[in-house]
């Protein structure tokens, strides 16, 4: 198969001195034992949480709280005299502050009456039911923007239908009108014979 000829060792003085393999193995074994001993020691000491608990147990809880949160700090802060605020006429206001004119920020009111009802979320309706289209029956749109809507087909009135419509209206009896002055039928109050003529005598 492959050649097993050994390479002759170099005889030059530049070559590195050969290291004994037994020493390498002993060094590797020492490193492995040291790593193993560290792991065993860590297991004996417990996890970092256990060590933290042991460390906290040796100290009082007050050492882990900042001084600004302690009662002594705010007692010291309020140890001085707190004078009451007098009447505004007795205040000493600097002239620069007194001469300042502060205007409200620019505000543009919206047109119309302000809405009092809250904005409803998507899919929320007054009655809680989902709205459907009356043409196709699907939800999400109404009959105005329905894609399945057919064009409106209005029948053109024919001559016979027009005559029938006129005859239908003509068949209904008309109410006779009466005069308000004399009460007779056939004329109104303006054409009543009892009305005096302008410029004439009755």
TrEMBL record:
Disordered: annotated span: 1-36, 156-202
Keywords noted in UniProt: Metal-binding, Zinc, Zinc-finger
Compositionally skewed regions (Basic residues) per UniProt: 171-180
Transmembrane segments: none
GO MF, one annotated term: zinc ion binding
Keyword Zinc-finger attributed: yes
Biased composition range(s): Low complexity: 158-170
Identification of the protein by name: CCHC-type domain-containing protein
Lineage, highest ranks first: Eukaryota, Viridiplantae, Streptophyta, Embryophyta, Tracheophyta
């Amino acid at each position: 198969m492959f050649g097993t000829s050994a390479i002759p060792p170099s005889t030059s003085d530049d070559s590195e001195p050969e290291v004994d393999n037994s020493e390498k193995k002993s060094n590797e074994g020492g490193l492995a034992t040291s790593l193993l001993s560290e792991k065993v020691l860590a297991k004996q000491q417990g996890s970092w949480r256990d060590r933290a608990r042991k460390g906290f147990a040796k100290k009082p809880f007050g050492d882990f709280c900042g001084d600004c949160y302690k009662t002594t700090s705010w007692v010291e802060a309020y140890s001085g005299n707190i004078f009451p605020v007098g009447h505004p006429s007795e205040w000493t206001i600097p002239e620069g502050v007194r001469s300042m004119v502060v205007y409200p920020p620019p505000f543009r009111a919206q047109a119309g009456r302000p809405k009092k009802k809250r904005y409803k979320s998507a899919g929320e309706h007054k009655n809680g039911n989902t709205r459907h289209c009356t043409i196709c029956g699907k939800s999400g749109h109404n009959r105005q923007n329905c894609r399945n809507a057919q064009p409106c087909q209005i029948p053109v009135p024919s001559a016979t239908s027009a005559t029938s419509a006129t005859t239908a209206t003509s068949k209904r009896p008309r109410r006779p009108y009466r005069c308000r002055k004399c009460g007779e039928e056939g004329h109104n109050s303006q054409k009543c014979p009892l009305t005096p003529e302008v410029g004439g005598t009755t």
